[in-house]
Amino acid sequence: MFKNQISRKMVAVSFTILLLLSGCSVDMNGSEQADKSGMESTDTRLFTTDKGEIEIPVHPQRVISDCGLLGDVLALGITPAAIEDYAATDVAYKELIKDTKVLEKWEPEYLMAENPDLIVTRNEDSYEQLSKIAPTVYVPADELETGERLSFLSDALGLGKEKGREVMDNYETKVKDAKTKLKNTGLYNQTFSVIRVQGENEIGVRWSNNLGGQILFGALELPQTEAALREVKAGVDWGATLSFEAVPEYMGDYILVTEYGNYQLIENNPVWKSLPAVQNGNIIVLSEPYMYLNDIYSWSAQLDLVTKELLNLAEKNGLPVQ
Question: What average pLDDT score do residues 192-216 get?
């Protein structure tokens, strides 16, 4: 009888323990699922793009950027885990990326090896392929104003749109300060030209959006020659390739030359040497790769450099410099 009582007690205790364990198991599973659900809701989010809504990390840790967006990404304070080969050594942000992995090829296996959690690209043709590797945000950069592009990209990177607006505001403030300094010198009473060295018998003239035109005529709004303005009015808004015989008409009182180690091809040309800007020493020779890029980081650096060079020329010419 005593044995039977012990047996019944053991069964009761065992049953109680089983119930407790079962309860713990349910609670633990429920807690685990809740934690997992909470992690998913806080670690990823839906982001609206031209390609529809996509799920991206709230705070991406391993961003890969193509070279077209690299300067903007860096200006927003993000250093990518890996980048597309930017194909130039003389760029404004080279110190920022000196320790960053440059992908040997912009191909799936090379990107996958870097285990990205977000890819940003302005190349629509590669979007579908990239999106199979990791969440990919296509930035329609050519369709967006600079401020819009920065806000969109900043939001995608988990920084909020405000960070993009802050970077743009800082650049616009810098432009305003530079214009004030240059106007005090009287340089806005002169005309300006931007050229690139293309060969011994021809040069490229730029009057709008690249190779320094984006700084002189876009940001600083310095005066151009009548010939350049005529071309812009006719709809040729980027520039032209000219023979040396046609060059003088387009050259202003100051000339910004962009080159890649080939300035010597034109510096002894008789037509070039006859230009008033050349004879007066009002020439600024800068690296073409440095002046080529149109991202906000490069623009800011280009603005600093061009403003400094123009103020140096103004001082050399006896103009008031503050």
Answer: 89
